Amino acid sequence: MDSLVITRPDDWHLHLRDGEALTHTVPATSQAFERAIVMPNLVPPVTKADQAEAYRRRIMASVPAGQNFDPLMVLYLTDQTTPEDIDAAADSEHVVACKLYPAGATTNSDSGVTRLDALTPTLERMQERKVLLLIHGEVVDPHVDVFDREKQFIDDILLPLRSRLPDLRIVLEHITTSDAVQFVESAGENTAATLTAHHLMCNRNHMLVGGIRPHYYCLPILKRSSHQQALQDIVASGHRRFFLGTDSAPHPIGKKESACGCAGCYTAPYAMPLYAQIFEDLGAIEKLEAFSSLLGPAFYQMPANSGKIRLLRQETQIPDRLELGSDTIVPFLAGESLRWALDTTFSDGQEG
Ligand code: DOR
Ligand code: ZN
């Protein structure tokens, strides 16, 4: 197989940042993806529907001419988010979900939620108005080992939440453990998960053996290989509630190669070649299209895209550095090459 034409995919978990970064991050995603769930962890965070709509207009200003890109917007939940904020989100044109960051769990999460119980009326309104809940599923208790934080979140917070609000549509984002796979499999039709390329491709040895490699540092942190295997097995099985979300999260080089480096892997420019290589290595290339382009829309109750993309069996060389506004960034797998490439001359079935 030398080329692969699939329905144009969507990225169900993406960080675009803001300001001049958008001139790089938006085209990096829009070249391959039609829609993206845009994370709201800006500084300050996107907590109101009108802020989300304004952020979307800034994003749209960076979409290259001739490309279709439809950013789907997300509100950042805080302890102050009210049911009225949810009504405004549900009534807005482009807000489809709210993101739960436990306060302190990750990048720009300081304004996140400290007591989920106190948000019950807000979550009930989300359930009623069909606004999805997207979750960064890690506890922040300093006594809980960083490698156990996802499992602890599932046990202590997610299981009770799931039974309290059975009709709320929940996406457990960027899952990293067999525990998360089992939870989502058994949680029923209203619960799904996104999977990143880096968590499918790597385990903690990639980050820690032979030296500490900050460009593999992300949150939730890479786990041991048995967890990676569970993630690979579930996507190779084609399960309907596990789909693509890159969590592509750019940070300038100085914030990664630092005594206290930021979490995040910048995968967006090469996302589809990365996933194609992963699925091919799993012997499951025939499952790539559903994972990338069909299962996400089905869970979000949206139509699949009508356009197509083409991937070529051709080397993609990942550069050592990329520009990001006035910053420099080291992309994920910098200096390495992939076996697949996105055909940028192909659009909607037309040769360019
Ligand atoms: O690795 C990550 N980077 N995980 C997150 O949860 C946040 C993200 C970011 O915003 O940089
Ligand atoms: Zn993220």
Structural account:
This protein is of the alpha/beta class and 352 residues long. The chain has a single domain (11-275), classed as Alpha-Beta Barrel (TIM Barrel), CATH 3.20.20.140. Helices cover 33% and strands 18% of the residues. The protein is built from twelve helices and 17 strands. The chain has helices at 22-30, 49-60, 83-91, 120-129, 149-164, 178-186, 197-201, 204-208, 225-237, 253-256, 271-281, 288-300; strands at 3-7, 10-14, 35-38, 70-76, 95-100, 132-135, 170-172, 191-195, 242-244, 308-312, 316-317, 322-324, 327-329, 337-338, 341-342, 346-347, 350-351. The strands form five sheets. The protein has an eight-stranded parallel beta sheet, with helices on both faces. Strands 1-10-15 form a three-stranded antiparallel beta sheet, with helices on one face. A two-stranded antiparallel ribbon has the order 11-14. Helix 3 (83-91) links the parallel strand 4 and strand 5 (95-100). Helix 3 (83-91) packs parallel to helix 4. The longest helix has 16 residues, at 149-164. The chain is globular, with a radius of gyration of 19 Å. Zinc ion is lined by residues 13, 15, 39, 247, 249.
